[in-house]
Amino acid sequence: MDVFDGGSNGSNQHRKIKWNKKLNWVGYVVLAIILIVIAGLFALQWITDYIWMDSLGFSGVFTTILTSKVLLGVAGFVLFAAGTFFTLFWIRRSYIKHFDSSQLPPILEKRKIMMLMMLGISAVIGLFGSSIIQGVGWERSLKLINHASFGQTDPYFNLDISFYVYVLPILNLVVFVLLGLSIFFLLVEIGAYSVFHMYRMSRSAQLHLGMTFGFIGLLLAGYHLLQPFGALSTNQVNLFQKSVVEGLSYTDDVVNIPKAYILAAVAVIMTVWMIIKLVRGNVKTMLTPIAVYIGLVIAGQGVSVAVQNFAVSPNEFAMEEPYLQDNLNYTRAAYDLDSINEQEHPGNNSLDAEMVERNAGTIDNVRMNDVRPLLDVYNQLQTFRTYYEFNDVDIDRYQVDGEYEQVFLGARELDTSSLPDQAQTWVNRNLRYTHGYGVSMSHVNKVTAQGQPEYMLQDLPPEGVMDVERPQVYFGEQSYPNVITNSEVDEFDYPAGDENMNNRYEADTGIQLSGMNRLLFAINEGSFRMLVSDQLTDDSQLLATRNIMDRVERIAPFFTYDQDPYIVMRDDGSLVWMIDAYLTAENYPYSEAFQGDSNYIRNAVKVTIDAYTGEVNFYAAEPDNPLLQTFQNIFPELIVEEVPEDIRAHFRYPTDLFSIQASMYGTYHMSDLEMFYNREDTWQVPTERYFSEDIEMEPYYTTMKLPDQDEEEFILMRPYTPKNRQNMTAWIGVRNDGEHYGDMFVYEFPKQRNIYGPQQIENRINQDSEISQELNLWAQGGSDVIRGNLLAIPIEDTIIYVEPIYIESNNETSLPEVKRVVMAYGDHIVMEANFDAALDAMLNIVDPDSQDNEKQDTEQEEQQDPSQPIMEAEERLQKFSDLFESYQQALSDGNWQEAAEIMSELESQLEEMELSNDPENPEGSQPPDDDAETADDTED
User: Fold this and answer.
1) Span 200-221, mean pLDDT?
2) Is 397 in contact with 405 (CB distance < 8 Å)?
3) What does the alpha-carbon distance between residue 234 and residue 184 come to, in Å, rounded to a whole number?
């Protein structure tokens, strides 16, 4: 029986060994498959990203970033993994040396298993370190290697600004990473060597702890040596106090910088002290230099607090005066404020008819529409189908029939999520509905009789003052899904009556879905249908990342992008999107930060994205900028220096940058240091009324002729008011056209006179009995009164205010309509049906003689030409007849919306004819609409 049992047990044991081997092999295979899948997913993402970047001509950008990340990732992995393995290896060896075998867990003596475990833990820590190093270090490293000089030094260390922007951040990164890693290892060692007080009895443990303490001491010395340079970029003088100076202050100069050098020396001495004590075996005295160091750190903070409280605060201006000058100069340089052209504006009450005539270009471009309600109008009157949408309406300027004119412009984009549920098929979403169509353009200064914008480009296909040669919008601001073009399915182009027009994509800028590409991107898109569909051919192209913001951020994530792209029509009739890219920096000496730690900003790059092809170009707007030159050194093929003229003609100075600069200049315009210290003449952004709330006034574009110029220009401007006051003290502007692009200027009003500010004008509108009564009547009659942008319009040596008034009925399908225009000048306010009427009314008040002469001239001309009324009547009747025929044609074609618009125009013509025959209205003036009529018109 024993033999039999033994044989049986031996056979079972043999089978178990075989099964264990098989299971081990299965485990290895499964592990290998998992690793291959993970590696494959990473590789797939890299490969598809490379193919996408290469299709746009930016493969070099991708490889440069990837190479940098890989090298830094490997370095981080080696550093963290090697440090971890060394620490664990030394701890194990110390345990084995200090304890008997019977006192240790058996696993510690199994060298092979322990090595595998230590390697595994090291690999995990290494991967963590790799992600940190490559994530935060790749851009800084590339900038360090390729940085360009600023050509300007700081006043204290006399180092080029590039040291603070490029070199100091990478030095701080190295020190903090190594210091953090060392402290982590120290905590592990303390935990390991606290067992049975090994740190007291084990020579190996003492050496290990001493080495780590010594390394931390050297890193602390490096940290303290970098502190003086960092003091030039902060106003923090100690843990508890800040200085009035941005950058180096008196306390920094006399206390903090010497303290940093002393602490660095103490850290080095502490390190040497601990090494000596370790060699001699005197472990107890190792803590003495640590205690001294901590004591000096605390004492240094105390001295800094004492000097700030008892030396600086009682006589702060005298102590900080030389540092305030550096703060003033370098902040101006960081925000490009040192070249602002400052002038006096007399603010005279000199408006007359001759001035209006001299500045006809400015008067003709005063905005009568506000972008905010105008977007609702575009989306209701110019979309035509539920799946079209205007995401935004932008302001720009064009040469129209030889005239320089400011316009509103919006792109009609496609929103496939608005398709009916039954149309939400894979074919429709990916192959058929691929693009939006066309743009709408309207005058900024003209509205129809119904208060709607007067269009310059409208309808489908776009018709008007310009020819849109390539109206398809494949790339835009919507959250576009990826689509496939050139398939067997025709793409929907635009609706035309009872049928739909189709289109074929003619560019070759997408990703060709032939060969291996089709498999790779089918996996990447997670679309099995893409792989097997017989509707795709070798000519099919994948258009990926079609949202323009996602597109540029995917190509160049190292820029900061303005969140307000705008559509531009080029001379060849194609459409491109334009985005402003900002280059920002931290650590600019003595400069005040505008956000977080960022204290330097430039709009050195303009980006265009073709709405049809998706081609992206990064243009150099400031070729001499050192940050731009640094990126050009890193990515030679990224930035294009030659800017096409039709692109440059539509450069707009970005409102976000202008707001930052204007905010900074509100404080840093003061050149007198004592006034600057006391903030005696701080300027702030005024407020305006919008709906029923007071909001901060945003910068606005206007076309105007500057007092010292001969022609109108496209200007971005904003008024200033004194802090806690409402009168206007100045206005700041920046030029946008030609060689003067980016030239900033400020006109300051006399301080001894009151110039009404925007909020004061808003309050006076509210207090005007006739205006407020009419607005209240509208508001009580089932309508909302929308106060549009209040525009301050400088004209030569005076200034006028203009504000459009919108009426909108309280229903979801209502349209905001411009029903009145308020004009304010000096102590006078008028409200009329349109801008021309308001201007005439104002001139009647301020320049009555000129208006009487014009009226007499007009009457004489009418008397001298008795046939004129007959001719005008015939013209009106002919126009009325043509409109009526168009109305009947629209009805027969089933174009109900067009018929409704024509009927509105017919009603307007009838009203004009009635008014012209009314003896009580000899001048044909329009009576004010009541609230009921407004609501009815809106609902219609």
Assistant:
1) 89
2) yes
3) 29
Residue-wise burial string across 650-682, b where 16 or more C-beta atoms lie within 10 A, e elsewhere: bbbbbbbbbbbbbbbbbbbbbeebeebbeeebb
Q: How confident is the model at residue 892 (pLDDT cuts 50, 70, 90)?
A: low
* Lookup: tokens for 436: 């939006």
pTM: 0.86
Tens-digit pLDDT profile for residues 846-887 = 988 765 555 555 454 444 444 445 445 556 666 666 666 676
Do the Cβ atoms of 277 and 307 come closer than 8 Å? no
Q: Is the peptide bond before 589 cis (omega within 30 degrees of 0)?
A: no
Torsion sign (Cα): 846, 848, 849, 853: positive
DSSP conformation letters of 423-468: G--HHIIIII---EE-EEEEEEEEE-TTS-EEEEEETTTTEESS--
What tokens appear for 340 in the block? 């602002």
pLDDT at site 928: 42
Closest-CA residue to 232 (of 179, 156, 171)? 156
Sign of CA dihedral 7, 13, 16, 22: negative
3-state secondary structure 34-88: HHHHHHHHHHHHHHHHHHHHHHCCCHHHHHHHHHHHHHHHHHHHHHHHHHHHHHH
**Three-state DSSP string of 181-203:** HHHHHHHHHHHHHCHHHHHHHCH
Q: Across residues 589-606, what is the average pLDDT?
A: 96
Q: Which of 689, 616, 621 has the alpha carbon at shortest distance from 651? A: 621
Distances from the Cα of 288 to the Cα of 186, 270, 298, 825, angstroms: 18, 9, 16, 78
CA-CA distances (angstroms) from residue 268 to 171, 256, 296?
18, 18, 14
- The count of C-alpha atoms lying within 13 angstroms of the C-alpha of 509, restricted to the half-sphere facing its C-beta, is 19
Using CA atoms, how far residue 480 sits from 253, 511, 533, in Å, is 55, 16, 22
CA distance 577 to 433: 21
- Side chain identity, residue 820: R
Task: For residue 690, list its beta bridge partners.
Answer: 693
Residue 43 has pLDDT above 60, yes or no: yes
Write down how long the chain is. Answer: 940
744-748 and 341-344 strand pairing? parallel
Please, are residues 341 and 743 in contact by the beta-carbon 8 Å criterion? yes
In 3D space, the residue among 543, 559, 391 whose CA is nearest the CA of residue 475 turns out to be 543
Which CA distances in Å does 831 have to 491, 684, 835, 927?
Answer: 50, 29, 9, 12
Q: How far apart are CA 395 and CA 367, in angstroms?
A: 10
pLDDT tens for residues 540-558? 999 999 999 999 999 999 9
The band of 748, judged by pLDDT with boundaries at 50, 70 and 90, is very high
Q: Which token pair is 237?
A: 């003088």
201 half-sphere exposure, CB direction, 13 A CA radius: 9
Give yes or no for residue 4 having a pLDDT over 50: no
Answer yes or no: are the C-beta atoms of 238 and 308 closer than 8 Å. yes
Closest CA to 756 of 727, 789, 795: 727
pLDDT tens profile 81-119: 999 999 999 999 998 888 887 778 888 888 888 999 999
- Alpha-carbon span 346 to 338, nearest angstrom: 23
Structure tokens at 590: 């003595």
Tokens of 447: 């509205």
What is the rounded distance in angstroms from the CA atom of residue 867 to the CA atom of residue 865?
Answer: 5
C-alpha to C-alpha distance for 361 and 381, rounded to whole angstroms: 29
The structure tokens listed for 666 are 């509100």
State the amino acid at position 45 in one-letter form: Q
* pLDDT at 28 (0 to 100): 65
Spatial contact of 341 and 745, defined as CB atoms under 8 Å apart: yes
Among 489, 598, 591, which residue's Cα sits nearest to residue 534?
489
CA 396/CA 386 separation, integer angstroms: 27
Tokens of 431: 């192959």
Burial label, 280 (beta-carbon count in 10 A; 0-12, 13-18, 19+)? exposed
